[in-house]
Design brief:
By secondary structure, the protein is an alpha/beta fold. It contains ten helices and 25 strands. A hairpin with a 5-residue loop joins β24 and β25 (363-369). The chain starts with 7 loop residues before the first strand and ends in an 11-residue tail after the last helix.
Length: 405
């Protein structure tokens, strides 16, 4: 089903972009496909950058989505080191940094996210973690006798802290909230991660207020200095929506897309970190900054471009590995929507499944910690959107299949 010489242009050379090209070919699209990536690397997955690759346990080739020859074999024009500076939607063209314009019939935005910087003096000197080069720079600061200060106890900060401790680095983590991951998981699970890192020798300082980042570490609001040979900012990311916004697409904490991931311009789609998706199952918009979304959304876009009925209905999913703790999270629970947390298993022993319930006792999300092969059993409880018996939910002897409404 070729659509002329213009074809599909994908802006963004990460996992979402590469998987969009793959999905188009897998679904039978035979028109031109051009993939424009700002980095010089082959498209790669980002989770290893704060996990196995950062820890020196995995090679970079394991993170690469496709070998270089795949693109030629599938007639995908991969242009690396290519920055897109503008979208000219009225002319069906994207503009590159050198002034070249690339025409399109369909446009897919997969521009991802960028690390946030803090509005404090010296923030520009701190390390961030988003690219392979970032991960390489951070790993070079690891080692016995070296000191790393991590600002932010979110997923990236905690995973980086675990990798640094594994290499013998002295690590201090500074977090403004009362607990790690408080905004994502709430206090019950936050305590689990606080205890985990302290047991592994991390100096975790909560309620920290930064005044400046200095060549010697971090100066706090009380005037004290946390010494460090390197400082990593792990305070979240912002979706790269400037191209979409400048082009006049609807943007509000991400590029607004419908159930099929189509933007306010019917020829333009958005996938991955930037997509604020009108989720047909959850019943509200959600923007997910995790690997699984970038991996799975492109198939819906490919189907929609081919004129098929397409709706992205997969529940958000992510995972983390820190020291001897492995976890998986499925669903979507905000602190505003969550009435309570129910735990099945041994919270203190870090072998449990936590469930986030709304005020009608409907399961919004679950997190399994060092307990495996439960995501497929739990997912139907979330999809059902019906109340459950919280006492039976907490009982390890009650099969998940018996809890459905």
């Amino acid at each position: 089903m070729a659509d002329g010489a213009q074809g599909v242009v994908v802006v963004g050379g990460g996992l979402a972009g590469a998987k969009t090209a793959e999905a188009l070919r897998a679904e039978g699209y035979d028109g031109p496909v051009t993939l424009l990536g700002a980095e010089d690397e082959l498209p790669y997955e980002r989770p290893p950058l704060s996990k196995g690759y950062l820890a020196g346990e995995a090679g970079f080739d394991e993170a690469v989505v496709h070998p270089e020859e795949w693109y030629a074999e599938h007639e995908v024009e991969l242009r690396r080191g290519t920055e897109v500076t503008a979208l000219h939607l009225g002319e069906n063209e994207v503009e590159l940094a050198d002034g070249e314009r690339v025409p399109f019939s369909w446009l897919v935005l997969a521009t991802g996210s960028e690390p946030r910087r803090l509005p404090v003096p010296g923030a520009e000197t701190a390390l961030t973690l988003r690219t392979r080069a970032d991960s390489d720079r951070l790993r070079q600061t690891f080692g016995a006798g070296r000191r790393l200060v991590v600002v932010g106890a979110g997923w990236i900060g905690l995973e980086a802290a675990a990798a640094a401790r594994g290499a013998g680095t002295e690590v201090t983590v500074l977090e403004a909230s009362e607990l790690p991951l408080l905004g994502v998981l709430g206090p019950e699970a936050g305590e689990v991660f606080a205890g985990l890192h302290r047991e592994h020798g991390v100096d975790l300082r909560l309620g920290a207020r930064l005044e400046a980042i200095t060549p010697d570490g971090v100066r706090l609001a009380d005037g004290s200095v946390v010494p460090g040979d390197a400082v990593l900012l792990g305070v979240g990311v912002s979706p790269r929506t400037s191209l979409a916004e400048a082009a006049g697409l609807a943007v509000d904490n991400g590029v607004l897309v419908d159930a099929s991931l189509r933007t306010s311009d019917p020829r333009v789609f958005a996938v991955g970190d930037i997509a604020s998706h009108d989720h047909p199952v959850l019943g509200h918009r959600v923007r997910v900054e995790h690997w699984n979304t970038a991996l799975t959304q492109p198939a819906t876009v490919a189907a929609a471009i081919l004129g098929r009925d397409a709706s992205y209905e997969e529940l958000p999913y992510f995972f983390s590995d820190q020291y001897d703790l492995g976890m998986e999270y499925v669903g979507h629970a905000t602190r505003e929507a969550t009435a309570r947390v129910v735990v099945r298993g041994d919270l203190a022993g870090r072998e449990f499944v936590a469930f986030w319930l709304d005020d009608e006792d409907r399961v919004l999300a679950s997190m399994n910690v060092n307990v495996w092969d439960v995501v497929d059993e739990v997912r139907p409880l979330i999809l059902a959107r019906t109340p459950v018996d919280a006492a039976r939910l907490a009982d390890p002897g009650t099969p998940y299949a018996d809890l459905g409404g």
